[in-house]
Amino acid sequence: MEFKNETIRDFSLEKERSAMHSALDSLPKSFPFEIPISIGTKEKISPNSFFHKNPWSPDLVVTKVSLAKPNDLEEVVKVSKKSWFEWKQVSQEERSNLLIRVADNLVSKKDFIISVCIWETGKQVTEAEVEFAEAVDFCRYYAMIAKEKLSPQKTILLGEDNFYSYHPKGIVGCISPWNFPMAIFTGMCAGPLVSGNIVVAKPAEETSATAYEITKCFWEAGIPREIFHFLPGLGSEIGEAIVTHPEVSVINFTGSRDVGLSILRKASIVSPNQSIIKKVICELGGKNAMIVDADADLDVAIQAILSSAFGFQGQKCSALSRLYVHSECYLKLKDRLIAAMDGLLIGSPLDFSNRIGPVINEESYLRLQKIQKENANFLVGKTCPVPDLGFYISPSLYEPPNNSDMWNSEMFGPILSMRKISSFSEGIQLTNQSDYALTCGVISRNPKHVLEAKSNIDAGNLYINRGITGAVVNRQPFGGGKLSGTGAKAGGPDYLYLFVEGKTYTENTMRQGFSRETLT
Ligand code: NAD
């Protein structure tokens, strides 16, 4: 089976733009989308709802999300127990084929799903296109590696047969974030499903409609609804119930550090009626650095900085927020960067020429405004003006003091800090001072420095002479170390092992004589 990454469309072509515009324009008449709870074959609307507003036009309510409660999870567990036995019997070949069909279904609804995502998140169309391709890639790639990696292994010796095989772990709770609601949601569910588990999906509140449309593609492909349940709702309610339920074997979590660490603590408690040790996969935030070397190509550096720090308004775990620049090119780079930031167009993602859109919601908007106010004295560059209506935060560049929290806390917004370094090694040392270790970038033409970076930088994903976001399935398995996560490496060859456990059978085949009754 050959794997090929999904093609990315070119929106400089009129025909691509107009198809996407008609999909986007067709949605608002159906707002608010009503998102149900789905347990097995039953769907229900709850009287308790969460309302998500459109980020660039907050008067518009995009979704009304039913809030699942702990008793819904009890129902899921009951339904799943009955169906799991059959699902486990489905061959790996068939499960992989189902996932390929999911990918085909996604592709057939591409413009619609991308449009839902844009209306929920405020993501630019080019960013959404790349994210969508990643979702499709996850399905095709995991379908392929499931067949390659999860088949049983035999070691036959004289007098001894050994078998080693992989078995699904059971119920996997997939708790996902809003910032990549297509790719991350799809990948987090596809991995456990193709390896034979039951999935309870708990999408982020803000992007429940995108997640629901994707879930339908799984069901329509033939993944049984009794195996893939959809429980939208609040993290503090249904999220927590999934984490603490004695029959949920694996928590597959992607999100913030605080929530991730609290999940690790709670999942470590074994309740009296529990007979499993829960496995927790936590993929968390980043405080990602880039080092610009003395001899760096500044054209490459500027492009890499703009896309990494401000793409999707800096709301990526991989986003750049610490920039260390060699003293020999510091002023030149700073001037060019400020000038380039000035040219960034800010506005609604419905206008495809805009490079910067709104942040996700009012809470993020107020949090980021507060950070900007508190650091106003260190501001050196800012993109202006921003539209009055909508949750817009202008991309801004700071030179904060060395002891500022701007160097430590994840910003999750278009806020970048820069600092002068006197040597490349100092850049590495500062990079490694963080307790996060997700992505990192190096812009350098010095082969010795590139080698030094490869050996010494703590980062799950190190990028050289390019931007530091946008990992591609199969080519750049993604995930960090230190407090950035447990290193799941989504989109990589080892991902599926997280959802299975190995069993070994050894048989002594030396002739022992046969029992009489088995000889007939
Ligand atoms: P979040 O932690 O607030 O929420 C993530 C998910 O957890 C949501 O579905 C939420 O409802 C749920 N949740 C919240 N409280 C919970 C609880 N007590 N128990 C169980 N579930 C709970 O994160 P977010 O704001 O949605 O996403 C942004 C964060 O995610 C950033 O920190 C970003 O860096 C990180 N992120 C990491 C990666 C990665 O691969 N490492 C990828 C994307 C985002």
Automatic annotation (TrEMBL):
Pfam families: Aldedh (PF00171)
A GO cellular component annotation in the UniProt record: cytoplasmic side of plasma membrane
Name listed for the protein in its UniProt record: L-glutamate gamma-semialdehyde dehydrogenase
EC class name: oxidoreductase
BP terms from Gene Ontology: L-proline catabolic process to L-glutamate
Organism: Leptospira brenneri
Recorded metabolic or biological pathway in which this protein acts: Amino-acid degradation; L-proline degradation into L-glutamate; L-glutamate from L-proline: step 2/2
Record domain Aldehyde dehydrogenase: where: 54-504
Superkingdom of origin: Bacteria
Alphabetically ordered keywords of this record: NAD, Oxidoreductase
Family annotation (InterPro entries): Ald_DH/histidinol_DH, Ald_DH_C, Ald_DH_CS_CYS, Ald_DH_N, Aldehyde_DH_dom, Proline_metab_enzyme
Enzyme Commission no: 1.2.1.88
